[in-house]
Design goal:
Number of domains: 2
InterPro entries: Ald_DH/histidinol_DH, Ald_DH_C, Ald_DH_N, Aldehyde_DH_dom, Aldehyde_DH_Superfamily
Radius of gyration: 24 Å
Protein name: Aldehyde dehydrogenase
GO molecular function, one term: oxidoreductase activity, acting on the aldehyde or oxo group of donors, NAD or NADP as acceptor
Keywords: Oxidoreductase
Strand order of the largest sheet: 13-12-11-14-15-24-26-27
CATH architecture of the largest domain: 3-Layer(aba) Sandwich
Strand content: 15-25%
CATH class of the largest domain: Alpha Beta
Helix content: 25-40%
Structural class: alpha/beta
Largest sheet: 8 strands, mixed
Organism: Streptomyces gilvosporeus
Number of helices: 16
Shape: globular
Distance between the termini: 78 Å
């Protein structure tokens, strides 16, 4: 006789709890806290631009929504070209004064800024969650890396500046949206510590309020910072080509980076241009599969929306079955969804591998590229679903993309040769070392790469032929902090390398005959 529904033999399931937004974490909560923390920079429902040492209500704000759930958020107040020219000229005036401020005073002001950033750490992280969709722990880590990294420079700057002087003009920073604190704010504070006034353009896609709060805290301590928003093509004449600019620091894609590179090369201007590359992970005569699985899951942090993500695995054909046995558990364990959704008000914020992509358009673009690649012959090895996501009831999920893995994307697909900047992995199978190297060097230069192989001699021999600035031995590499250097090969980098002492050297002047380590039009010099 079949068991009744009440019978002990009937399987039971625990209902999935209905998620809710954690109290105190809404966008309005973050906005009100920002108004209270820096009323000079945030006014009513708008953000102001910072230039000439003050906050200005100029610029026409664009509407903006959060990628998290399409909540309306503050949009960038876009300056026109004429206002940008005034801002750059004012920055040069600040620079001429700041470069003569004694180093002990510069260190004290930067240290006071870092103390203020530490005081507002959680608010800065919450703004990152809403503006660019970072999960809570990753958002906190972005803030912490900026603070801790600059503190290291404060402690070591006397040695780094020996025999060096500030640039003749301010440093202009144009950076992507994905790391507002640990890349952009970090760079700005080190540049100022070295004696330069600093200018930054707010990334169009996100980070406005977080950057505004950080710059407000710096400006209160007398740091000569300028923060403006606007259309890149309209502001480029001032932020890139202006004769007042002493150095251009750019982080972004290859297309925009190539245009910037052409401009600075024509002008002979100091430059640091970090561009994308297809970072690859090679598997060759490798057997330590148990160690690989946890490393593979971590490559999906922040949906691979970072310059050092690994979207391509180049795998020895004979090892493919073993690789899949290690890879699939990792990708199936990935957790994604709303970074602020909890089952109960007292629950901690969720531990997620990633939240949304930067916007719905990017999610649709990658979904369409995936469909197109499969229609042309790519093999779908894993396709997650939004049903597995961690979401609020009926929330907008248009900016979310489940993890996806494709085998052998066709050469006609952009997924074959370009970095997707999203949670899509592609796998290419190879049979010879020559094929392995060709596949790992597919993008003519990368920032990082990794090779997993059991034999140290094989690693040393093959790694020397991989065109990436940093190469990991069985482990992923990152941009690095403090003394770790960073740069790129081929089209992934142009201009001076950075990190450690090199960041200070890149934004200061040394002996007249000095050749900075970097990738320049007329020479390539490794550190």
């Amino acid at each position: 006789m079949a068991p009744t529904p009440e019978s002990p033999s009937t399987p039971t399931s625990t209902p999935t709890p209905t998620l809710t937004l954690k109290p105190g974490t809404s966008w309005q909560d973050a906005w009100q806290r920002s108004l209270a923390a820096a009323p000079e920079a945030f006014r009513d429902d708008q953000v102001r631009n910072l230039w000439a040492g003050g906050w200005h209500p100029d610029g026409a704000p664009l509407p903006a929504i959060s990628p998290v759930d399409s909540t309306p958020i503050a949009g960038p107040p876009r300056l026109n070209a004429e206002a940008a020219r005034h801002a750059v000229r004012a920055s040069l005036d600040q620079h001429r004064d700041w470069r003569h401020v004694p180093l002990p005073e510069r260190k004290a002001r930067i240290s006071a800024t870092l103390d203020a950033l530490t005081e507002h750490r959680e608010l800065l992280a919450l703004l990152l969650v809403w503006e660019i969709g970072k999960p809570w722990k990753l958002a906190q880590a972005d803030v912490d890396r900026a603070i801790d990294g600059v503190r290291w420079y404060v402690s070591d700057i006397d040695r780094m500046l020996a025999g060096r002087s500030p640039l003749p003009g301010p440093v202009s920073n144009i950076a992507s949206w994905n790391y507002p604190m640990s890349v952009l704010v970090h760079a700005m504070l080190v540049q100022a510590l070295a004696g330069n006034a600093v200018i930054a353009k707010t990334p169009t896609d996100g980070g406005l309020s977080c950057l505004t709060l950080a710059c407000a805290l710096a400006a209160r301590e007398g740091i000569p910072a300028t923060l403006v928003s606007g259309n890149g093509s309209e502001l480029s004449a001032s932020l890139i080509r202006s004769p007042e600019i002493g150095c251009v620091s750019f982080v972004g894609g290859r297309d925009t980076g190539a245009r910037v590179a052409t401009a600075v090369a024509d002008l002979g201007k100091r430059h640091i241009l970090e561009q994308e590359g297809l970072n690859t992970w090679g598997i060759w005569h490798h057997t330590d599969w148990d160690a690989l699985t946890p490393l593979l899951r971590k490559t999906f942090d922040y949906a691979k929306q970072r310059c050092t993500a690994y979207p391509r695995f180049v795998v020895q054909r004979d090892a493919f079955a073993d690789f899949l046995a290690a890879y699939l558990p990792a990708v199936r364990a990935i957790r994604f969804g709303h970074p602020l959704a909890v089952a109960a008000p007292d629950d901690p914020l969720p531990t997620l591998d990633y939240g949304p992509l930067i916007n719905a358009a990017k999610a649709k673009e990658l979904a369409d590229l995936t469909t197109e690649a499969i229609s042309r012959g790519a093999v779908p090895l894993h396709r997650g679903t939004l049903a597995a996501g961690h979401f609020l009831p009926s929330q907008d999920t248009s900016a979310y993309l489940p993890p996806t893995t494709l085998l052998a994307p066709p050469p006609s697909s952009p997924l074959h040769h370009a970095e997707p900047f999203g949670p899509i992995d592609t796998i290419v199978l190879v049979d010879t070392e020559a094929e392995l190297l060709a596949a790992m060097n597919a993008s003519n230069g990368a920032l990082v790469a990794t090779l997993s192989t059991d034999d140290p001699e094989t690693y040393a021999r093959l790694a020397s032929q991989i065109r990436a600035f940093k190469i990991g031995q069985g482990k992923p590499r990152s941009r690095g902090d403090r003394e770790e250097l960073f740069g790129g090969f081929g089209n992934s980098w142009r201009g001076a390398f950075v990190g450690g002492d090199l960041l200070v050297r890149a934004v200061t002047q040394g002996p007249p005959t000095e050749r900075l380590p970097g990738n320049f039009p007329d020479y390539h010099l490794m550190p």
